[in-house]
Amino acid sequence: MDVGEAECEAMKRATLLVENMLQRPDQLQKVEQYRRRVQRKKASVEAMLKTAMQSQLDGVRTGLTQLQSALTDLREIKTCLSEVESSLVRVPELSKDLNECRAEYVRHSQYAAAMENLKHIFTVPESVEKTEKWISDGRLLYAHQCLMDLENSRDDLLFELHKLPHQNPNDTRMLKEYFADVHKLSEELGKQVWVILQRTLNTVRMKPTQIVTALRIVEREERADQFALQRQKGSGFLPPGRPKKWREKTLKVLEEAVVERIEGTILEDRSKSKNWLIKHLEVIRLLVLEDMKVISSLCVPCFPPSFDIVNLYVQMYHKSLANHLVELIDAKLEDNEYVTLLSWVLNVYAGPELMGHPTLNINIAKLGPLLEDKVLNNLISEYLKNVNNNYDSWMTKALEIEEKEWYRSEPPQQDPDSHYKTEVPQLIHDMIRQNLEVANTTSPEVQVQVLICSLEQVRLFAGKFDAAVKRYKDNYYSDRSQIQYYTTYIIALANSCQGMVDVLMSIKAQFWRPGTTTNTYDTEIATKFDAVLNVYQRVRNQMCDHLLEEAIEDLQDHFNALLTQRWLHDTEPMDTICLTLSDYFNDYSHLHQKNFDHVVQLVLNTVAMRYTTAILQKRLTLKTQEDRKLVAERIISEAEKVATVFEQVAPDLVKFDSPCDVMKGLAEVIKVSDVEMISLEVHPLLRR
């Protein structure tokens, strides 16, 4: 768009604007006001345009000035580059001219090094001899200073040879041979330092200055190693024997000394004393505690802070003790040695008796466990296996002794309540309590696992016990004259089963606190207790069955005589049964009350069942009503006689729902004269 078109467009827009402003007559009065407003706006726009144009012109002027300056600089740079190129043409010739100067510099450097070390070079034999004397006299700082001078002289000369562009191996070998005694001196001095540091915990109490001297020498050697390694990065030269790594050697010597101190505490072995492990661990405890006190009070001032000597020794003792205990475990422990070691590891080591001692101020949590979880779990497993083996051995031996007692010609012992008893429950109780109390010296978790093992072993013992009783019963019935007190010992064994139940309930109340262990352990223990209680209840019932079997065996002929022709004219069968039962009940009175009630109930049920069987077997033929009435009254009479016998020993047993009522009910059925009335008697009997 050209200027003319722009003016035309501006005129059109101005005309349109004026038309809009002057549309009403009253707006004509404001023409002058509109004109002044437009003029002010025009003046403002013109001022802005002038300012913008001025800024643009200033920028253009500055840019032109900088371009002019850059052009001048480029011309100067071009001139300088031309001069540099001209100068570089002469550099190869200059390098040839300076070869002689360079060679002279190298010779001067070698001469300077030789001059500087001339005194040491000529006095090497004398310096070596003097250093050896100082080492033998124990003046280690003087000896080390002299050794450092010899090493510095040797290293400087070797370094100058290293810098030569064409090295002569013979020169290097000759120089090393000349200073060969320096390496031997270093080794001799090192041996003296290691001897001092190896005895640190003893030496620091009497001559701490020796420790300080040895550590100063180690620190000097460490700085010399660092300097040699730093120079190697720049030049590739490393002096012979560097780095010596005496600081690492120091740590190794200190650790070896700790290992020797711990291993030196073994004063006895198992062959000389059963308590060798207790003594050994106590000696270790006293030694480590005393050593840690010495380290905290005397070693800290002697060792540089960079050693962090307290934590360093703590870690060394921790590691060495762990390795030593693993060796003891691998050598196989026996019996109570497992408990001794577990208790020491879990309680003594981290407790106030050793590492947790208030004067040591050791962070036990940071120290970590003495034995790894795998090693500790294996140790606990071996301990539990040993507990199981001991249980098996003890219980087998106890059962053998107990079984011999059954064949004696003397009755079993009685408790204060006149109940027959054997020693088995008390022996088992003492075994379990002893093992649990010993396990409690280790940790609650171990005690819980021992409790589980104990319950399982007691459950297994029930099977062995039951098998032994069956052998005893079989021997008795093979020849009843051989065993005089069979009944009384079976009574005692039944009481022992009840005693085992009481023992288990006591152990449960004393050593198991539900909620103090994990849910898994609580569930397992509850299951184990139920299983063991049930198995001894079952064995108890079998003992009662043995008693019943003996009584029935003695009365078998009399039961067979019931409801026979002989029985009609003779009361002897039932009289004998009642008298015999009364005699047995006198023996049964030595049973615990629970066992007595159970046996009496078994006998009553069996007598009623045998009598009922005799009635239903139709041993008699009753042809007349008079015969039926006579037999029925006899049955009722004998039922009452049986009830009387049992009422004397267990009154509550025959008061309600007595099996004797069945006998009476059958008698009522027998004496019914009208066949149609039998159903009236049978239905109530069936309901009962």
Structural class by SSE content: mainly alpha
Main sheet summary: 2 strands, antiparallel
Unreliable residue runs: none
As a percent range, the share of helical residues equals over 70%
- Morphology call: flat
Strand line-up in the sheet with most strands: 1-2
Q: Hey, roughly how much beta strand do the residues contain?
A: under 5%
Q: How many DSSP helices?
A: 26
Mean pLDDT: 84
Provide the gyration radius in Å: 56 Å
Total beta strands = 2
Fill in the keyword field for this structure.
single chain; 688 residues; mainly alpha; two-stranded antiparallel sheet; 2 strands; 78% helix; flat
What does this molecule look like?
It comes from Scylla paramamosain. GO terms for molecular function: SNARE binding. Pfam families: Sec6. This protein has 688 residues and is mainly α. The chain contains 26 helices and two strands. The chain has helices at residues 3-21, 31-88, 91-116, 118-122, 124-137, 140-163, 169-178, 180-198, 200-206, 208-235, 246-263, 276-302, 309-330, 337-348, 364-367, 373-406, 424-440, 444-478, 486-511, 519-560, 565-569, 572-588, 593-616, 625-649, 660-670, 678-687; strands spanning 413-414, 420-421. A hairpin with a 5-residue loop joins strand 1 and strand 2 (420-421). It starts with a helix and ends with a helix.
Quick structural overview:
The protein has helices spanning 3-21, 31-88, 91-116, 118-122, 124-137, 140-163, 169-178, 180-198, 200-206, 208-235, 246-263, 276-302, 309-330, 337-348, 364-367, 373-406, 424-440, 444-478, 486-511, 519-560, 565-569, 572-588, 593-616, 625-649, 660-670, 678-687; strands spanning 413-414, 420-421. With 688 residues, the protein is an all-alpha fold.
